[in-house]
Amino acid sequence: MKKFEPFADGVLPWLTGLAMLAALAMVFLYVPTERVQGVVQRVFYFHLPAAWMTFLGFFIVAGASASFLWQGDRFSDLLAQAAAEVGMVFCSLVLITGSIWARPIWGVWWTWDPRLTMVAVLWTIYAAYVLLRVLAGDNELIARYAAVLGIVGVLDIPILYVAVRLWRGIHPKVERMAPEMAWTLLVCTGAFLCLFAWLLWLRLRSLSLRDEVAALRRQALASS
Amino acid sequence: MPYLFAAFCAIWIVLFLYLLSLSRRHRALAREVEALRQMMEQRAASRSS
After folding, report:
1. Suppose A171 and one of A38, A115, A124, A207 were both cysteines; which one would form an S-S bond, judging by CB atoms 3.0 to 4.6 Å apart?
2. Where are the domains of chain A?
3. What does the pLDDT average to over A175-192?
4. Which of A46, A89, A204 is the best mutation test for B, with the most CBs of B within 10 A?
């Protein structure tokens, strides 16, 4: 972790800020307004990257949890915890922005469309994971149960992808888009990737510090 | 337009609140590390004297 510190503390926040400014400029000044949906379609350029970051976060949880169960290393456990929390932030953004977009387009804030339902299920699974980790503290057994939940929960993502085809949902599918739209989506995805990396780093550092506090407390107790 | 504004406001509010909570938790932990280190140093000093 130490070798990433200069980049993560010095470069990443600036890179994220600049990428976000570029993304906002492209969304509001560059990309043309979509003909059918109007200006509210611009929410899509932040909604879709947020969904991708959610999946990235939860795949990291699954991978790190598998590594923790296999090798029992502390870093994998911390990475899984940090990625779950950051993934939850992005998943919440997906649900909020999707709901705000749905109101003028579908006429409702929420509908039990297969894809929407699967995202809500995904949010609930990882909310349970985060709660379990917060409430259990450093309990090794609970950490193992949570790791299993973190692996099983990720199976929801492929279901979410085929949900539209399997159950004929009304959620729009991206098939073809104008080059300006594709470029805007690319820049927004880059900005969200920087933001994801930065938040993950901040949470990971905070969790490492919590471990340091626990170790110092043990040391203080032993020496008293 | 109000929906677009609401969506972007929501994004920034969520991100700001999460960053604020991260920063608060980190500061509290950093203070605790500092206090524990000082306590250990004082103990070591009082034992050696």
Report:
1. A115
2. 43-168+178-218
3. 91
4. A89
